[in-house]
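User: Structure tokens for both sequences below?

Assistant:
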Amino acid sequence: MAGTVTIRLVTFDFWSTLLADTRESTAAAHALRLDGVREALAQAGYLYDPAAVQAADGRALAALQGVWNAQRDVSPADQVRIFLEAFEPALPAMLSAAAREAVEAAYATPALTHSPVVSPGAVEAVRGLAAEGLVLGIISNTGRTPGRVLRRLLDRAGILGDFGVLSFSDEVGVRKPAAGIFEATLTRAGCPPKAAVHVGDDPVSDVAGARAAGMRALHYLPEGRAPADGADAVIRHLAEVPALLSRLA
């Protein structure tokens, strides 16, 4: 590729970039999560009405937001522990290992049933970049759907195998925009920041985060919103990425 520095690594955000939830899928997945957790607890002999589950979910989310606001993240097992403690502080210790596994499955997997949709041009962009020999990666915050489930969604989309480095916040323990998750990805890819480009929709987590780590940033704006300050370029369609990279200096 042309330019003073050859681009070697291109990373993507997952949510609202490669794949995007709809309002309907978000609501349905949330309802399935709460119903599934309630059922798993009932199977273990712990009965809670829907209002109690909803209240515990709100308390757990507030606790998680405190962690996330500090640009940190926790494992799926720890998320479930926080959720269970929101019912009763002693509840995690009261459950058998099998019951905890059932709760975690109900908590983590609703997106497999009510799935996000693949963004227009995502498959073409990923396959085109891979065909050029670039190393591809994902740098993404995970929320309540862990990286292991996001991998399954990428596999369904037919592009999981195109990515050589996947950094999900629940696995790294760091959330964007903190530099640590970008730096961990660069280290694993063996790529200096100046030879890497990140593509994402969020002006803070993706654009500012990547730029702070020394990477270049493409701001993905499919809906015509105002571009972020500091973005190296703005794209409206992911299929634009391969051609645009060739023009980045």
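Moving on to the next sequence.
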Amino acid sequence: MAKYLKKSIEKVNSNAESYVDLSDFKEAAPDKQRTGCMSVVCTSGSKRLKLNHDLYAALNEPSSVRVLLGKSKIAIVAVPDGTAGSFKLGKGGILYDTAVVDEVISLTSGIDFPENASTRCGTLTQVQDDGKGNLAAIVTL
């Protein structure tokens, strides 16, 4: 018996009269806002970009990144601290730069980013070398 069930409720066997046939149910699927390798966090006055665990780990948990903007993709490149044009990441892979987050948002389509909310977006499509010996994650928006 599960902890969240009251002790007076017992598991129903499939041959019981009260058994509910689940084949008539429709499965709920996540929408674009609930999936993605990044979360855009919009608060009043600032925005930040949080890399999800898989994306952050794929880049070997960097402390600094460069963000390269394409037409419908971005590249997040792990770079040494102090690299020109780089951004420091906060604990857990959070980029605190409203201007960059606004540019990333402008490349997305079909997703709303409401204020005072966190919205997931992007699909990690590959990890590669950036031609300078750094890891680059390619994210399709």
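User: Anything stand out in the second?

Assistant: Residues 31-140 form one domain.
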